[in-house]
Amino acid sequence: MNSITSPLRVQIEAAADVLAGRRIVFLTGAGLSTDSGIPAYRGAGSAPRRTPMTVQTFLGSTAAQRRYWLGGHLGWRSFGTATPNAGHRAIAELERAGRSAGVVTQNVDGLHLAAGSERVVELHGTMRTVFCLRCGQTFSRDAVAAQIDAGNPWLDVPDEVLLGPDGDVRPETTDGFVLPVCTVCGGALKPDVVFFGEYVPAERFASAEALLRSGDALVVAGSSLVVNSGIRIIERARRRDLPIVIVNLEPTRADAWASATVAASTSVVLPTLQELLA
After folding, report:
1. CATH architecture of 6-277
2. In this predicted model, what pLDDT tens digit does every residue of 196-216 receive, in sequence order?
3. Is the pTM of this model over 0.90?
4. Are 266 and 90 in contact (CB under 8 A)?
């Protein structure tokens, strides 16, 4: 509390006034996880600009898949052991207190679930699972990591790395790297995430819409709302005339529609907001 300046406190209290007596649905983005060591794509806490791999590139060549899987494997140890921060925990506490209907997240890191949130729609999928593009068999990411280690005993995986937003590390070379494959049919593997250029599955977005209908206010936390899936959630909230509160370090595409905005770290704002709403 003592680290919060008076102007910021006023902004948070204004947001709490908007949310008073309402059941909140959270829409969260990469900015929520930066304090857990996972960089965002853009804005404060973002990694140096790099072009993300599109689904067309990934599916188009084994060279792209080698680049993806090697970079992802080098970063998986750090990404997979990231822990929830104060923002994740505050959201989980609001759910336990009956003040939150749940979370729709654009993140693939699983940190909401690790923090104790139970009603979570992972809009863009999860890095925890992998599936076969040929037969559809699903595997845990840890099982795939073990297969990569076994197939590439020469590979030196560092304990600490500079992660990219997808939990990856840009490899210097992919020479000699043996791709993991489906142990059922030998097909190519893909992480269970929505790549750039790929659509959110219709049934998953329907789950997000159902969650939104169970609340009567929307809080956007740590998302710039550049990705269309976030704007679609905003549009659904506006159709229902739900008050919208935005907590993000930088301006977003939806600020003009918000009932209140707080331009500060989610790790600072959300715990304070939780206390005010308790």
Report:
1. 3-Layer(aba) Sandwich (3.40)
2. 989 999 999 999 999 999 999
3. yes
4. no
